[in-house]
Amino acid sequence: MKKFEKVREDFPLLKRFVYLDSASTSLTPIPVVESMNDYYYNYNANTGRGNYKIAIKATDKLENTRKELAKFINVRDKEIIFTKNTTDSINMVVNGLKFEKTDNVIVSSIEHHSNLIPWLNLKNQGVKVKTAKNNGDYEVNPNDINDLINENTKIIAITHISNVFGSLQDVKEIGKIARENDVLFLIDAAQSVGYIPTNTKDINPDFMAFPAHKGLLGPVGAGALYLKEEIAERLMVKNLGGGTVTNVEGDGFRLESIPYRFEGGTSNISGIIGLGRAIDYINNIKIENIEKYSQKLTDELYQKISSIENIKVYGNPNNIHHTIAFNIKGLNPYDVSKILDETSNICVRSGVHCSIPSVKNVGAESGIVRASIHFYNNLEDIQKLYDALKLISQMV
Ligand SMILES: Cc1ncc(COP(=O)(O)O)c(C=O)c1O
Question: What is the per-residue burial (b if ≥16 Cβ within 10 Å, else e) of 262-276?
Fold first, then answer.
């Protein structure tokens, strides 16, 4: 507990704001910002190209992040492809796979648009998207996915933790179903990596997409795709150019090995170095402690908010992770978040949360208010939100 109070010093914004919007982007700790400055001040060279000292140092640092990230999620180093963000990672898969007109894809009814719109766009190629419904608690039942599979199913693409309701999906079971049916499996892990321990080997997906800037406390503009080595040849490279080939002869070329064939052009070097520092930071605290403490805060947040008359909290209290969705009856969610900001410097998000199907599920036409935490929050933050919401709810 004391340890967690101490970390707050690394997040200067917490002195001015009650920040409860980490599901959008988390705050970046000072050591991570410093590591990126250090790159610009001291070894600001490109990676994988020059053989002078600072170029070698930049390359080593970038590759070190790859190693650390691979270890963090328990995969092989070469299975980590650096991208811009989760959306970029998912699009790399959607656009890299070859589809037949008869193929279908399975998603769920609680997907973020980043794991929905790219798949829906495949309808131009004749591909059908099937949607697994959720139970009333915004959880996807693996059996419902199983029921949707047929001989033309190419891939199952499912969120790990819902960005609206915080519900955790049984990805291990879904992965098992995918393998039994010889179907590819992608996990949108934007809301799980860095929040809960992720043993990718154990879950065994083919692809997993996540950003640096949420659970992992890294900077914006960097992310990763885990790509299982065994299926790498099935993914076409769409971003060809510098760094992606080993030879060019006449009008042909030979592709680099993984991951480099997928990392065309200059990477977000400082961002990736910052991500490496962020992983160190998390390892220092230990992901198991982060999960435990965050769950304690989440449970407290749920208890407090749901005790207020006039507030409807969505989801199953036994399966809510770091993100709580609610509405005050009779008030527009945008007004709620605006009042929280204006009166109390409390930052929460309201609206459709890039997941219109999720919000439609709830039947809340004007959207939802969402409070989300990370381990740098504390019980005082939750009390402040509770006090402010109580006052607002009495305005109705
Ligand atoms: C579940 C989920 N998927 C995808 C995304 C998109 O992430 P990014 O902004 O890193 O592309 C988000 C962002 O909130 C998310 O929560």
Answer: bbbeebbbbbbbbbb
Instruction: Give me ligand 1 centre to Cα 292, in Å.
Output: 23
Which residues are annotated as catalytic?
Answer: 354
DSSP per-residue letters across 73-86: HTS-GGGEEEESSH
| Averaged pLDDT for residues 139-166 | 98
206 in any annotated domain:
yes
- Predicted pLDDT at 1: 67
The last residue of one of the domains, among 283, 308, 336, is: 283
**For residue 106, what are the β-bridge partners?**
130, 156
Model confidence pLDDT, tens digit, residues 231-259: 999 999 999 999 999 999 999 999 999 99
> Could you list the residue range(s) of the whole structural domain that residue 326 is in?
286-393
Q: Report the separation in Å between the CA atom of 211 and the middle of ligand 1, taken as the mean of its atom positions.
A: 7
Report helix, strand or coil for 104: strand
Beta-carbon contacts of residue 63 (< 8 Å; ≥ 6 apart): 77
Nearest CA to ligand 1 atom 16: 163
Tally of domains within the chain: 2
Judgement on whether residues 278 and 369 belong to the same structural domain of the protein: no
The answer to whether 87 touches 95, Cβ cutoff 8 Å, is no
Residue 185 is encoded by which pair of tokens? Answer: 């499996």
Average pLDDT over residues 38-48: 97
As a whole number of angstroms, the distance between CA 320 and CA 299 comes to 8
- 4 located within any domain: no
CA separation for the pair 199, 189 (Å, rounded): 12
Which CATH number do you get for residue 359? 3.90.1150.10
Same domain, residue pair 245 and 297 = no
Residue 9 three-state SS: helix
Question: Stretch 138-166: mean pLDDT, rounded?
Answer: 98
Q: Which of 21, 25, 83, 87 to mutate to test the pocket of ligand 1 (most atoms within 8 A of CB)?
A: 87
Over range 163-178, report the average pLDDT.
98
The pTM score is 0.98
Place of tokens 């961002």: 271
